[in-house]
C-alpha cells in the first residue's frame, strides 16, 4: 500500500497471562517480525513497543509494570533511533519529502460558486506548487485561466504545496465549465494531458 515506515504496538499487555508477560511480548515480536519480513519490511527498522492503551502503559511515558522492557531501538539508512514508549516511536517517523519540484497536479474534488468571489475549485495538491497569479490549465477540457487567490481553512496562502487541501479562485470561468475529476496544472510547466496508457499500483 506504499506504507514505508512501520511501528508495532503490542497492545493489551495488561491482559496477558500473567499480566505484563515478557515471554508473551517476545513471542508476539518474533511472530510479527517473521511476518513483516516476508512482506518486505526490515524488522531492524521497526519499533516494537509493549503497551496497554486502557491503562496508558508505555504510551506517553515508561511504565513501571514492565521493568523487563529496556526500550525499542531501530536502525535504518537515515540513522538510528531509540526510546521507551509509543509517542517516541511516533516522533521517530521520518516525514515524507513533498514533491514540490514536479509539475503541478491538482485533481478537483468539487467546484463552488461563492457570492462576491466567483468560481472556486477545491482539491488537494498532489505534486508541484500552486500560487496566486499563476496560469493554470484544466484537463481534459484544456481550459486555461489565471488563479486570483489560494485559500486553505479560510486563510489566504502565498503558495500551496503537496498535501494541502485548498480552494482557489479562478478568473472568467463559470462553475459549469469545471467539474469534479478535472485536473489543474501549470500551463507553463508540463500541463496535464490525456494519456493512451499508464502504469499504476493497485
TrEMBL record:
<keyword id="KW-0342">GTP-binding</keyword>
<keyword id="KW-0597">Phosphoprotein</keyword>
<dbReference type="GO" id="GO:0005525">
    <property type="term" value="F:GTP binding"/>
</dbReference>
<feature type="domain" description="Translation elongation factor EFTu-like">
    <location>
        <begin position="118"/>
        <end position="183"/>
    </location>
</feature>
<feature type="domain" description="Tr-type G">
    <location>
        <begin position="2"/>
        <end position="95"/>
    </location>
</feature>
<dbReference type="GO" id="GO:0003746">
    <property type="term" value="F:translation elongation factor activity"/>
</dbReference>
<keyword id="KW-0251">Elongation factor</keyword>
<dbReference type="InterPro" id="IPR050100">
    <property type="entry name" value="TRAFAC_GTPase_members"/>
</dbReference>
<keyword id="KW-0648">Protein biosynthesis</keyword>
<dbReference type="GO" id="GO:0005737">
    <property type="term" value="C:cytoplasm"/>
</dbReference>
<dbReference type="InterPro" id="IPR000795">
    <property type="entry name" value="T_Tr_GTP-bd_dom"/>
</dbReference>
<dbReference type="GO" id="GO:0003924">
    <property type="term" value="F:GTPase activity"/>
</dbReference>
<dbReference type="Pfam" id="PF03144">
    <property type="entry name" value="GTP_EFTU_D2"/>
</dbReference>
<keyword id="KW-0547">Nucleotide-binding</keyword>
<dbReference type="Pfam" id="PF00009">
    <property type="entry name" value="GTP_EFTU"/>
</dbReference>
<dbReference type="InterPro" id="IPR009000">
    <property type="entry name" value="Transl_B-barrel_sf"/>
</dbReference>
<protein>
    <submittedName>
        <fullName>Elongation factor 1-alpha</fullName>
    </submittedName>
</protein>
<dbReference type="InterPro" id="IPR027417">
    <property type="entry name" value="P-loop_NTPase"/>
</dbReference>
<dbReference type="InterPro" id="IPR004161">
    <property type="entry name" value="EFTu-like_2"/>
</dbReference>
<keyword id="KW-0963">Cytoplasm</keyword>
Amino acid at each position: 500500500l506504499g506504507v514505508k515506515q512501520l511501528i508495532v504496538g503490542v497492545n493489551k499487555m495488561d491482559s496477558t497471562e500473567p499480566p505484563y508477560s515478557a515471554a508473551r511480548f517476545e513471542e508476539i515480536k518474533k511472530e510479527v517480525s517473521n511476518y513483516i519480513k516476508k512482506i518486505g519490511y526490515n524488522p531492524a527498522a521497526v519499533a516494537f513497543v509493549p503497551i496497554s492503551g486502557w491503562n496508558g502503559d508505555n504510551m506517553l511515558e515508561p511504565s513501571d509494570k514492565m521493568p523487563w522492557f529496556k526500550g525499542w531501538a531501530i536502525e535504518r539508512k537515515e540513522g538510528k533511533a531509540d526510546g521507551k514508549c509509543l509517542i517516541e516511536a511516533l516522533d521517530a517517523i521520518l516525514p515524507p519529502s513533498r514533491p514540490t519540484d514536479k509539475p503541478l497536479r491538482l485533481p478537483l474534488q468539487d467546484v463552488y460558486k461563492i457570492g462576491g468571489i466567483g468560481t472556486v475549485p477545491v482539491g488537494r495538491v498532489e505534486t508541484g506548487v500552486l500560487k496566486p497569479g499563476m496560469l493554470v490549465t484544466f484537463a481534459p477540457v484544456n481550459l486555461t485561466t489565471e488563479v486570483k487567490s489560494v485559500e486553505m481553512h479560510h486563510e489566504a496562502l502565498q503558495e500551496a504545496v503537496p498535501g494541502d487541501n485548498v480552494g482557489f479562485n479562478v478568473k472568467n470561468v463559470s462553475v459549469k465549465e469545471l467539474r469534479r475529476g478535472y485536473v489543474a496544472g501549470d500551463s507553463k510547466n508540463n500541463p496535464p494531458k490525456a494519456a493512451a496508457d499508464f502504469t499504476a499500483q493497485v
